[in-house]
Design a protein that fits this description.
Elements: E1 2-3, H1 16-20, E2 23-30, H2 32-38, E3 45-46, E4 48-49, H3 55-69, E5 76-82, E6 85-93, H4 98-120, E7 129-130, E8 144-147, H5 152-158, H6 165-176, H7 184-187, E9 189-192, E10 196-197, H8 203-206, H9 214-224, E11 235-238, H10 240-250, E12 259-262, E13 270-275, H11 280-284, H12 294-320, H13 326-340, H14 342-352, H15 358-366
Parallel strand pairs: 1-2, 8-9, 8-11, 11-13
Antiparallel strand pairs: 2-6, 3-4, 5-6, 7-10, 12-13
Helix pairs in contact: 4-9, 6-12, 12-13, 12-14, 13-14, 14-15
């Protein structure tokens, strides 16, 4: 078993011949101290551990998620340690599979430095947890999602970065736009501008701290938007804090369903679409915001549903064929969800947000 260097080239989807060359590799993860902080260990202990895992088991858990989301169903990973620290033994993976893992951990070092400075300046909150986007597809990604911060329960309860109401709802919209349910994770490779798992109400508290993570943010965006071929992966920017960050960092103005291009590295052109935060619809459709007028609330929710389905359609289309013209794809998706399939969009609002039956929803949308 050989130690994988960090300069290997990236791999495209495995062909039959490449599958035959699938390797057994060992990847150094670093010292116990480094792995402990980068994998937020222990993930779920408050006197009593919700899942009483060792450090090695915790790392295996997240690396196993990555293998599954990359589509390497027969691959395995085992984490051990020696005098040099921890290492991951992979079987049945591409020979250069350690490169994106090493890049993630190197970016994580930058994030931890930012979090340490934030704490030294007295701005870290007791209810926050340092949390990198672990368990994502490391190689076979289709698109990138730029978000604000992960919810705390994704770390402390689920130990799954993609386990949240936000990601679940968006996965459903991707499926509605033709992505197979088993492949949605490949489209949902997330970068949060704040690598901090926090309560859902923490958004306001996180304002003003993004500058501590600039090196991490820009490194991650550059890394994960890099496609396997000539075309960069498309990115969707969710919510106003993220869209404001894009403006500040890259000079790109993206409103909801607005398109822009950014260059995370010289020569790279990444198509970016602005979108509502996936959870925004519950706020937008809350009758309390309209003097308890249910029709006004429904009208607002129906508008957001149409926007969200259009954004997910663009993400699905661009993720399946990254070389397409982003504007043409958006035009087609707008026509689909706001004209041709407007009744379907309406029904999805009433079933998924108002919890009506299909029959009740159809009656509502026919009226």
């Amino acid at each position: 078993m050989r130690i994988l260097t960090l300069v290997a080239v990236s791999l495209a989807t495995l062909t039959v011949a490449e599958e035959a060359r699938a390797a057994d590799i060992q990847v150094s993860l670093g010292s116990s101290e480094r792995v402990t902080r980068l994998f937020a260990y222990p993930n779920n202990c408050n006197v009593i551990c919700y899942r009483d895992w060792t450090l090695e088991q915790t790392v295996e858990h997240y690396l196993g998620q990555s293998l599954a989301r990359d589509g390497y169903d027969s691959a395995q990973v085992k984490v051990g340690r020696d005098g040099n620290g921890l290492y991951a033994n992979f079987t049945g993976v591409p020979a250069d599979y350690g490169r994106p893992l090493a890049e993630l951990l190197q970016a994580g070092d930058l994030a931890f430095q930012g979090a340490s400075r934030l704490n030294a300046d007295g701005k870290w909150r007791y209810s926050w947890y340092f949390f990198l986007p672990l368990g994502m597809a490391l190689e076979n990604r289709r698109s990138v999602e730029l978000l604000h911060f992960p919810p705390d329960y994704s770390l402390t309860q689920a130990q799954d970065y993609l386990e949240s109401k936000t990601t679940d709802r968006w996965a459903d919209l991707l499926v509605e736009n033709g992505v197979p349910p088993a492949r949605t994770a490949a489209f949902q490779t997330i970068v949060d501008i704040a690598p901090i798992a926090a309560p859902a109400s923490a958004g306001g508290d996180l304002e003003g701290i993004y500058g501590y993570f600039t090196d991490y943010q820009t490194r991650m965006v550059a890394q994960i938007t890099r496609g396997q071929g000539a075309d960069a992966l498309p990115m969707i920017a969710f919510g106003s804090p993220v869209r404001s960050w894009l403006k500040q960092q890259y000079g790109a103005t993206v409103k909801v369903l607005g398109l822009a291009q950014i260059s995370p590295t010289p020569g790279a052109e990444v198509a970016v679409l602005g979108a509502n935060h996936p959870s925004y619809i519950w706020y937008a459709a809350d009758p309390e915001n309209y003097d308890d007028d249910p029709q006004k609330a429904d009208d607002a929710g129906l508008k957001v549903m149409g926007q969200d389905l259009t954004a997910a359609c663009w993400q699905a289309g661009m993720g399946q064929q990254p070389g397409q013209a982003p504007g043409q794809v958006l035009t087609g998706c707008t026509q689909k969800w706001q004209v041709t399939q407007k009744a379907r969009s309406c029904a999805l609002f009433y079933t998924s947000i108002r919890s009506l039956t299909e029959e009740q929803a159809k009656a509502k949308c026919a009226g």
